Task: structure prediction
Amino acid sequence: MSESSSPVFQESEQTSLLLVGDAADLSSCLSALGQQFTIVQQCPVDALLTAYQKVQPDLVLIAAARPDAALLEVVGQIRQLDAPVQPALLLFGDIDADWASAFIRAGGDDLLPADCASPLFQARLFGHCQCIQRQRLLEHHRALLMREEAVARAVLGSVIRDELQQDMPNLRWALSPRALFNGDLILAAKSPGGNLNLLLGGFPGRGLAASIGVLPVAEIFYTMTAKGFELVEIVLEINRRLNSLLPTEGFLAASLLEVDQDQRTGQIWNGGLSCAWLQRAGGGLEVLSSRHTPLGIVDNAQLDREMQLFTLQQNDHLLLCSSAHAYRSVGADRHALQQGLSACLLADLDESLTRVGEHLRHNLSLAEGDLSLLLLRVDQRQPQKQAVEQGVLSGAGCSARWSYQITLDPRTLREFDPRPMLTQLLVEVQGLQDHRERLYTLVAELFSNALEHGVLRLDSSLKSSPEGFAEYYMARERLLGELQDGHVRFSLEHVPSEDGGILTMEVEDSGSGFDYQRLGSGALSLEGFSGRGIGLIRNMAEEVVYFSPGNRVKITYHWVRS
Amino acid sequence: MAIKVSEENNVVTLVLEGRFDFSQHKEFSVAYRAYEKGSKQFVVDLSQVQYMDSSAMGMLLQLREHAAKGGNDAVVLANPTPGVADILRIANFEKLFTVK
Result:
């Protein structure tokens, strides 16, 4: 309909009328009404349905003074038809109360007097025309809304990245089909270091207003994860952006999770999500409770950034869910909700997802498809993938000579994570986008060795057990918070070579070093001394040199122009 | 749902009942906007509210913005039923409001 496609509603000039009845009964109407209405057709009662479907009139005027069961049936059929604007079905003539009542109940709208020319007849008919106009206005707005939602669907559809599931075989998710309308959001991405970042959340309200925040949140999440930012930084940035974007009543209740690449540890920030659980393989269920206000309400200075750490073992499951209605039954039966969960988790992850969904919907009394779910199973730890062999590491990098140095003092070390920035420097300045993962890993390993073992003097053997891992990171937080003296210095240099270039990275810390000579010169098992770090570095870099007393290391990375 | 409004000593009490959701938006908003922004403290009596959804939480945030400045005391959420109290707790709203 042409009115629906333009945002401005145009009132129709003429209302179309279908006259139904015997020709004799209708003849007087034609002259009385022909001026003001477009009489599109006349037909006998038994041809009403066909005529109606053909001409789609606004008003149907029926001359049928005597009860007619067939007419009632057709009235019912017309009402069943899918019309954006329903016609007015009007009976006229000398009609008794019973017939009138039957007609109205079958779907008719009104009774008009027998005389088409009378002022009363004309007035009431005109009244019905006004009703039709109001319906059209409503339909116009509805059509606009449908268009908006179609646009939202197309835009948001490009945000949720389905192909990631191939890269994460132990992850399953199901976004509520009505996600567009209830503002649910699921995001998953891997950091250059191989950690898995996950987000599940929901905006309040419905429609476009609820989904408008999805785009900036997704952009921040994907970009910062790709650059290797810490989860807490991502939380803060999302909070900052939502504060400036959303109105007062808007917020994002969400959980952000990071699962370490080895799947032995994880951390979660939960602001307002009622369903976040860690189902242990051994049977216990831990609730990862919401400890913070949702995002987009308080500013960053007031936002609680405390993360919950947890260890993971094979066959543990992480489960997050969001539903606009989850709040409703929250008091109701959390016990029953949590009880049946472990029975839903089977060897087949797709089946597990289905069962968990059914179980939750049943316990929360939700309609089909009103739930968004994220399920991660902790699989067997993969042996550390062999880093790409040295050889042709090529790129389209630039042949410039440059150097860069940064020294990080205790305060900077507390507040600033240099890894994304340094990686970005190497990637952008050198044009080595394809090497981002490798470069990030090198920077990250060197930095963490320098900071944790050098400056903070943490013993890496603590990381060899799952509980030790959590202890290690808590000690790291504490020691970093208390740090008064110390520094980490990064020196980067690039010199062009005939075939590409040579990148040199030197990291020095204020610690007392270690017995690097024990490392030997052979390639170490990646699981060996100090965990992954040194073996990994050795596999990626061309040359690794330690300087006495072991608090300074220089690595060389050669790239070849493709 | 009719909202009963009363005032004493610069504190306005809003008594809600039944469902506190988006359908109450206009009435709720009209009730507190009758007072000049930043001039009053508010008490929202939730003792008769059986159901609250996330839109209602947004409405409380709007009320908080309209109330007098002064931290969490500006808006008191009084006597929530267990289900509603749970919702407020999960959203950690006691960090933004005084929940009694």
Summary: Chain B touches chain A through 26 residues (CB under 8 Å). The two ends of chain B are 23 Å apart (CA to CA).
